[in-house]
Structures are given as C-alpha cells and as structure tokens.
Design brief:
binds MU-OXO-diiron, 82% helix, Ferritin, mainly alpha
C-alpha cells in the first residue's frame, strides 16, 4: 500500500474513533437526562462508528500497511437539549462525508482501485447516515416545545434503532 494512501486511511481511522467517542458522550448525556430511547440509539451509533474504524484497520493490515491506533480527545459532555445534539450529529456526519470524499479522490489520484472499491461501502453508509440525521432534525423542528412530542420522539427513536439494526445485521 502506498504511504500516501496508508496515511490518509489512518486519518480516517482517527476520525471514526473520534466519532464513536462523540456519540458515546451524547448517549451518556441522554441516559442521564432520562431519554432512554435516544440513549439506546446513540450507544448503538457509537458502536457502529467503532465498527467503521475496525473495518479500516483490518483493511490496512490486509494490504500490508501500518494501522495507527489513535489517541482520542475528550468529547464535549454537556448539551443544552436534543436539538443541539442532533444538529451536531448532522454537522459531524457532513464533515465525515467530506473527508470520505477526499479519501476517494486520493485513491483515484494514486490509481489505487482496490482501496477505491473498498471505500464505496463508506460512501453508501454516509449517504444513509446523513439522511437519517436530517430526518431526525426535521422531526425535532416539528415538535418544537411540545413535551408530549419529546416523549413520543424518545420512544420512536428506540424503535428506529431496532429496525435499522435488524436491517444492518441482515446486510452483513
Ligand atoms: Fe463512520 Fe458516521 O461515520
């Protein structure tokens, strides 16, 4: 594996690890604030980011590169409300998509078509993650200040999580 590709993949390893930590901190906040459906969803999301990281590490090793296990900075631990959390999730996922796109561009420049092919999984995953984060934000906007709305939102998010997880397990 070319050094430039190895380095770019390691940067993505670090970003996926950071994403997992960010969502873990959000999940913990939600649990402390009695949003148990949201907490389940975010704990699950954090686990998925760790899987994204592992997938990259194992690919690097398979291609005889050097995978660097990164230090992770402490994420923010306090949030105003659910809107702040899910806006941050969306912003973060948009950022991750841009980074994946840059990675894809590097593989084309370096003519590394194997890594290019491998990254297509991440391209599709980002499409789904961004769409889901947008949907959740739209629902929160509709709820506004309605307390009952938050109760239903929390309950439904736990169910969305179960449905998505069932699909993902089927895909793997
Ligand atoms: Fe692995 Fe949500 O990006």
């Amino acid at each position: 594996m070319k050094k430039s590709i190895n380095q770019a993949l390691n940067e993505q390893v670090a970003l996926e690890a950071e994403s997992s930590h960010i969502y873990l901190s959000m999940a913990s906040w939600a649990e402390k604030n009695s949003y148990h459906g949201v907490a389940n969803f975010l704990y699950q999301h954090s686990d998925e980011e760790r899987i994204h990281m592992l997938k990259l590490i194992r690919f690097i090793n398979e291609r005889e590169g050097v995978a660097i296990i990164p230090p992770i900075k402490q994420p923010k631990e306090n949030f105003k409300n659910l809107s702040e959390i899910f806006q941050s999730v969306l912003d973060h996922e948009i950022y991750v998509t841009n980074e994946i796109n840059k990675l894809v561009e590097i593989t084309l420049k370096e003519k590394d078509f194997t890594t290019h092919h491998f990254l297509q999984w991440y391209v599709s995953e980002q499409l789904e993650e961004e769409a889901l984060a947008r949907q959740i934000n739209d629902r929160l906007k509709l709820i506004g200040n309605d307390k009952m709305g938050y109760y239903i939102f929390d309950r439904d998010l736990g169910n969305i999580d179960n449905a998505l997880h069932a699909n993902e397990t089927k895909d793997k």
